[in-house]
Every structure is written in structure tokens, then in C-alpha cells.
UniProtKB/TrEMBL annotation:
It comes from Marinobacterium alkalitolerans. Signal peptide: none annotated. The keyword RNA-binding does not apply. Residues 28-95 form the RNA polymerase sigma-70 region domain. SUPFAM superfamilies: Sigma2 domain of RNA polymerase sigma factors, Sigma3 and sigma4 domains of RNA polymerase sigma factors. Keywords: Sigma factor, Transcription, Transcription regulation. Pfam families: Sigma70_r2, Sigma70_r4_2. This is RNA polymerase sigma factor RpoE.
Length: 195
């Protein structure tokens, strides 16, 4: 299904919700719940907590939907609500996110995952764990705007335009932030890749 046809479906469902059809919102939740839980999971690493925050984000979205004017795609609007809900949750708990389990296979730009799967030896397992740890720690140390931009691109697969909408900044700024985030991670993992 193309993003245009999904956007058209979303638009019709949003109009139905705005006209009082609560079941239309259930369809939107079904369409996006896994993506939203995955997105929140990059901020809050406990799955039960992530599901609670996702539910809270959907409740906020439902309550705000009468004011949704369709200036951006529905899912872009929903992602923004989910990110803000996750951030507010963390702030209210007085904490930063704990370590995230970044799967090296998800971090496609590293390009080393095919090497890591060649031999399932204890040495390679240790190497993979070390690489994941370095990526995770580097990601956690990045300034928030770099971390969010990279997370939306690499883990959520969003386009630069959609990320610009979510982060409320120009596309050029998004490209710069993603480049700087990748550069920081590449610099940290380079010594490991030379082994």
C-alpha cells in the first residue's frame, strides 16, 4: 500500500472521527499502534511502560482530533504527539532514558551486520555485544535533536520531509542532524571495525 493511499484512508477516517464515529478511531489505532509503541520504545525501554504511554498518546490524539486540520499527514501529527508524550513521561519521572537495546541489524548505516552473522562464535558474539554497546551509548550521549532525528530515520524509516514535520524544522536541518549523528556513531565504532 502506498503512503498516498494510506494518507487518503487516514484522512477519511479522521473525517469520520471528527463527525462522531468512534470506531473509525479504532481503525487508526490498529493501523499505527505498533509503530507508535516502537517509537516510544526508543525513549522508554520497558515494554509495559511503552504500551501505557502509547495508550496515553492515543487518548491525547483522540481528544485533540477535533482540532486536527490536516496540515500534515495524520501519522506525522500522531508521531509528534507520541514523542511529546514520551518526553513528558520521562520528565515527570525525573529521568533520562535508560540504555536501549539497539539491534545492530537495525542500524543499517553501520554496514557491518553481514560480517557479524558469518560465524556464530563466542568471539563474534562478544564483538557484536561490544559494537551494540558502543552504538547504544553513543546514541544516548547525542544531543536530543540529533538522537530524535536519527531514531526517526533509522528505526522508524520516516522520510526527511516527515521528520521535518515531526521536529518542526526545515528538511536541511534534519539532513544535517542525521549526518552529524551518524558521524558521531561512525567515529566511535571505527576502532571496533578495524579489529
Amino acid at each position: 500500500m502506498s503512503s498516498e493511499s494510506q494518507a487518503a484512508i487516514d484522512k477519511r477516517l479522521v473525517q469520520r472521527v471528527q463527525a462522531g464515529d468512534k470506531q473509525a478511531f479504532d481503525l487508526l489505532v490498529k493501523q499505527y499502534q505498533h509503530k507508535i509503541i516502537g517509537l516510544i520504545g526508543r525513549y522508554v525501554y520497558d515494554s509495559h511502560e511503552a504500551m501505557d504511554i502509547a495508550q496515553e498518546a492515543f487518548i491525547k490524539a483522540y481528544r485533540a482530533l477535533p482540532g486536527f486540520r490536516g496540515e500534515s499527514a495524520f501519522y506525522t501529527w500522531l508521531y509528534r504527539i507520541a514523542i511529546n508524550t514520551a518526553k513528558n513521561h520521562l520528565v515527570s519521572r525525573g529521568r533520562r532514558p535508560p540504555d536501549v537495546d539497539v539491534d545492530v541489524n537495525d542500524a543499517q548505516y553501520i554496514g557491518a551486520d553481514s560480517q557479524l552473522r558469518d560465524l556464530d562464535t563466542p568471539e563474534n558474539a562478544l564483538y557484536r555485544e561490544e559494537l551494540e554497546r558502543v552504538v547504544r551509548e553513543t546514541l544516548d550521549r547525542l544531543p536530543e535533536e540529533l538522537r530524535v532525528a536519527l531514531t526517526l530515520r533509522e528505526f522508524e524509516g520516516m522520510s526527511y520531509e516527515d521528520i521535518a514535520n515531526v521536529m518542526d524544522c526545515p528538511v536541511g536541518t534534519v539532513r544535517s542532524r542525521i549526518f552529524r549523528a551518524r558521524e558521531a556513531i561512525d567515529k566511535e565504532i571505527a576502532p571496533l571495525l578495524e579489529k
